[in-house]
């Protein structure tokens, strides 16, 4: 493997579902690359396909077509047995740590399970390993005999992160991991994720709808709209000069903490259904820059400074 | 200064659980003036929702014990009979919540839910009721009769919240209590709903008590802000003053722990160490924020600080000299 090869490479990935005679194009032709030690944020509104994409990568959603490679090895379309070695490499952390932790397991049991299953510890040293993991995520190892309900939301999210780290993954898929937390606790978790990344050289695919969090944690950002990436940029390029009209509208919609009220025009209408995506550019019915070409032709991703944008205006 | 519409004085709410007594709201006093949007801000468990639910006597059963005074115009609501509260609920004060799907009846079409309100509160039926429904739907940005026949599950989240707002407005309330009404919505839809609430306030001169944890939303919509921590008011000020120069270390810390979308790198984040305190009914021997406060000093553990006047319509519960508090860019 050459050094410049990406850790994760996703090529023309599609995830379609059949529902009531319609085809829901939840993910519809996504290309992505993620380097080792990098954080790529995946942003977009509800139903844009960001979570479906992450779940497809770990085999929780069936892939319709396309492929994903991890370190040059294909991880999609495998049998359960063949996929197993890759399960360890990609770990998923969810929004609600209460729903993703077994309430009948102590924290020690929750963390010991993956350690033993993936041969990262033996019966003899598993307790030491559990303590080590808890210390790494900033929890007192003395608490390991307790159950999830005895912890606060932020502490539970630390436990979920510890569980994901237990099997020494190379990529963490973080799906709205701070959305259920208060801001003061969210900041603690974001700092934890940053320091873990620095220590372990871990990569993150960071799914969130909060663009303030994105600007803080991500190196690059992919903006999704109705199953497709419409803009893929370095974080600061995106925030300083968004290229795609949808990204512009998204950034303009975010309430800012400022002492001066802003004049602005909210984006019209709502996100169209992925069962019936608009013709041509999928954003054209809501776009204030749309012209005659937009409903007729299908835009490509065109290069812009620090990345690419799917808009004819950037061609 | 105009006469206040809502006047809350020394409101305390206590819940008795099997293990202990929890004082969720402690000696809260504030006013809402006609046509004003007041934000009630704080993190989970700070007492903001309990405060708002007390206004209409809507606590879950067994109800908390409520002391103090809540006056709507000339009417006292604390200790009022169920019958008296019913005359206020929906007519003079109505509420919208975070999750419009759970506040709408999944078995009824939009039309039937709106009709029920009009029948019960205004004795409006038939064509008159229908005309009123269409009028109110147009005001919340839902044109046409088509949506009247829809069931809640057939509508998007933003559309459902518009229906809830329409239902809350049917009887022309003087006060709308909005409890995290945009928290579950996407930002572009949130922007639409905030715009709608602003324009409704303008047209109807209605007051809004806006409960949120999001200081960005506060900045967009509120005239004044009340910050709560551990069941207490810790700071109160006009929105711009509070966001520009917070006078309580908790408000300051909240602002410093929020990632900024308008600053390179998201700004520098300063998490607030530790967790909020467990609430009890015991009198505090120290400032409730002391264990987490970066500006703590001698004297902070010398009884709970009073909510003092800091001039310019500002209140704060802190002994750190005002001159030491930094100004935000």
Tell me about this structure.
With 315 residues, chain A is of the alpha/beta class. Chain A has helices at 50-57, 80-89, 97-100, 107-117, 126-136, 153-165, 183-200, 211-217, 235-240, 245-253, and strands at 8-19, 22-34, 39-43, 65-70, 73-74, 90-93, 171-175, 203-207, 220-225, 228-234, 302-304, 307-309. In chain A, the strands form two sheets. Chain A has an eight-stranded mixed sheet with strand order 6-7-8-3-9-10-12-11, sandwiched between helices. In chain A, strand 9 (220-225) and strand 10 form a beta hairpin. Chain A starts with 7 loop residues before the first strand and ends in a 6-residue tail after the last strand. The model of chain A has no long low-confidence stretch (mean pLDDT 91). In chain B, helix 5 packs across helix 6. Chain B is globular. The interface between A and B is large, with 45 and 48 residues.
Terminal residue distance of chain B: 31 Å
What's the end-to-end separation of chain A, in Å? 34 Å
As a percent range, the share of helical residues of chain A equals: 25-40%
% residues in beta strands of chain B: 15-25%
Rg of chain B is 21 Å
Strand order of the largest sheet of chain B: 6-7-8-3-9-10-12-11
How is the biggest beta sheet of chain A arranged?
Answer: 8 strands, mixed
Mean pLDDT across the residues of chain B is 91
What can be said about the biggest beta sheet of chain B? 8 strands, mixed
E-strand count of chain B: 12
The H/E string of chain A reads EEEHEEHEHHHHEHEHEEHHEE
Class computed from helices, strands and strand pairing of chain A = alpha/beta
The structure class of chain B reads alpha/beta
Order of helices and strands of chain B: EEEHEEHEHHHHEHEHEEHHEE
| Most extensive protein-chain contact, per-chain counts | A-B, 45 and 48 residues
User: What shape does the CA trace of chain A take?
Assistant: globular
